[in-house]
Amino acid sequence: MRGLFERIHRLKAFRDLNRQEFSWVLYDVGNSAFTMLACSLIPIWFKELAIGTAPGQITGDQATAYYSIAISVVTIIVALLGPVLGALADRKETKKLFFQTTVAAGVIGCVLNGFAWSWFLFLAVYVLTKILYQASLTFYDSMLNDVTTEDRMDQVSSYGYAWGYIGSCIPFVFAMAFYILSGGGGILKAPLFSASLGRILGFSVTAGWWLLVTVPLLKNYQQRNFVEASNASVRKVFRKIFGTLKEIALKDRKVLFFLIAFFLYIDGVGTIIDNCINIGTDLGLPTVGQVVFLLATQVVAWIGSLVFARLSKRFRTVPLILICIAGYFCVCLYALTLHSLLDFGILAFGVGCFQGSIQSLSRSYYSKIIPPENSGEYFGIYDIFSKGASFLGSAVIAWVKLAGGTINIAVASLAIFFALGFVFLILSSRQKSLNRTEQA
User: Fold this and answer.
1) Does residue 103 surpass a pLDDT of 90?
2) Does the pLDDT of residue 4 top 70, yes or no?
3) Are 141 and 363 in contact (CB under 8 A)?
4) What residues contact residue 405 under an 8 Å CB cut-off, 6+ apart?
5) Tens of pLDDT, residues 155-171
6) Which residues are CB-contacts of 235 (< 8 A; sequence separation ≥ 6)?
7) What is the rounded distance in angstroms from the CA atom of residue 129 to the CA atom of residue 137?
8) Beta bridge partners of 91
9) Do the Cβ atoms of 219 and 23 come closer than 8 Å?
10) pLDDT digits (tens, 9 = 90+) for 24-43
11) What integer pLDDT is reported at residue 207 of this predicted model?
C-alpha cells in the first residue's frame, strides 16, 4: 500500500508537493467521498426508508422536514464543539490523536449507516457520523499551518479541493451503480440485489475509500505548531475561547472583517450547493439530467481549483477570492434566466468554476492571518461561521418562495450576500495583521 501511494506521489500532478503536503491533500480526496454521498444518495435512501411508515404514514414533505431538522442539529452541535475541540487539539502532540479518533469513528459510523433498518435509526447514525466527519475537518484544516509554509498555502489548499472533487467521483460511481442495481430510479433491477444491499454496499465503499486515502496523513503528519499543555488545560479552554473572541472583536480587525466576509459569501455558496436539487425540481427538470450535471460540476470544480492553484503562484490571495466572489455574483443573476436543463447545466458550470477555489483560498488566507500555534482554536471559530452560514441563505429562499416568488428570484436574491462579502473582504485586506509579519 505504501508503494502505491509513493508511485502516485511521483506522478506529474503531485510532483510539486512534499510528502506531508501530499498526505494532507489526500485526506480531501478521502473525505469528499462522504460529502458527495451526503449531497446525493443519502437523502434519497432516507426518504425510501421514511415515506409511508409510522408514525402516521410519513409523507414526502414530512421526510424532508425531518431530514432538514437533523442537518440543523449537526450544524449547531459542530458550531458549538468546534472551538472547544480545536483549542484542546492545539496542545503538543494532541491534534493527531483527535484527528485519527474522529476519522476512525466516522468511518465506522459510515459503515453502520448502511445497516440501519428504520428511518429513525438511519437518521440518528447519520447525524453522529456527520458530526464526527465535520469535527475531523476542523482538525484537518488547522493542520495546513503544520504541513506547509505560508507562501505555499494557497497552492496546497487548492490542490486539496481540486483532487477532492475528482477523487470523490470514484467511490460515488460505485455507490450509484449499487443504487441502480437495487432498483433505484426505476432504471433496472438486478436479481437478488435488494435496496438494503445497495445501501450497505454504497456506504461501505464510501467508508473504505475514506479510510484508505487517509492512511498517509495518519502516518506522516507531525504537529509543528502548538501551545504548551499548561496553557491549554481543559478548565481554561472556555476562558481562552472567550478571550480569543474578544480579542478578534476588539483588536484584530483583519480577522474580524474576514470572518464577516466569509460568513456572507460562504452562506451564498452553501445555499446554492444545498439547494441545487431543489432548483432543478422546481423547474421540472429530469432527475437523471441533474445527476449527470452534478458529476460534471465535480470535474469542472477540479479543473477550476487547479487553475486557481497555478494563479496563486503569481497573484495575491485576496484578488483571487474577489474574482471568485464576483463569479458567484454573476451566477446568481444568471439564475433569473433559468428555464431548461441546458440553462441548469450552464449554471452548474459557473458554480463549478469557482466552487472549490473560493473555499480553498479562503482556508489558506485564514491560515495566513491567524497565530499558527492556535490554529485549532481559530479554525473552530472559523467553522462557526462556515457551518452556521447556510441558515441565512436558506431563510431567504424560503421567504421568497412563501411570498410567491419563483426559485429563479430566490437564487438571484443571494447576490446580496456576495456583494456584501466582497466589501468586507476588501476591508479585511486593508487591515494590519496582528499575527504575521507579512500581509496575506
Assistant:
1) yes
2) no
3) yes
4) none
5) 898 888 888 888 888 99
6) none
7) 13
8) 227
9) yes
10) 999 999 999 998 888 778 88
11) 96
| DSSP annotation string for 312-324 | TTTS-HHHHHHHH
pLDDT band at 1 (very low <50, low <70, confident <90, very high): low
Name the amino acid, one letter, at 141. Answer: D
Would you kindly state where each structural domain of the chain is located, as residue ranges?
2-429
Q: Which amino acid is at 353?
A: C
Distance from the first to the final alpha carbon of the chain: 38
Overall size of the chain counted in residues: 440
Residue 253: enclosing H or E segment and its boundaries? helix 253-274
The whole-angstrom separation of Cα 207 and Cα 212 is: 9
- 299: Cβ–Cβ under 8 A, 6 or more apart, which residues? 165, 166, 169, 352
Q: Are 417 and 260 in contact (CB under 8 A)?
A: no
* The one-letter amino acid at 9: H
Is the backbone of residue 56 left (phi > 0), alpha (psi -120 to 50) or beta? left
With 80 as the cut, is the pLDDT of residue 282 above it? no
Model pTM? 0.81
Torsion sign over Cα 140, 141, 143, 144: positive
Around Cβ 242, how many Cβ atoms within 10 Å? 11
pLDDT for 233 beyond 60? no
What is the H or E stretch that residue 247 is in? Answer: helix 234-250
Mean pLDDT across the stretch 375-388? 80
Q: How many H helices and E strands in the chain?
A: 19, 0
Distance of alpha carbon 295 from alpha carbon 285, whole angstroms: 16
- Residue 120 predicted with pLDDT over 80: yes
What letters, b where the CB count within 10 A reaches 16 and e where it falls short, cover 127-147? bbbbbbbbbbbbbbbbbbbbb
pLDDT digits (tens, 9 = 90+) for 286-323: 766 777 787 788 889 889 988 998 898 889 999 999 99
Using CA atoms of 190, 194, 195, 196 in order, give the dihedral in degrees to the nearest 10: -140
Please, what CATH class does the domain formed by 2-429 belong to? mainly alpha
Answer for the pair 426, 317: CB distance below 8 angstroms, yes or no: no
Closest to 304 in 3D by CA, of 340, 331, 342, 344: 331
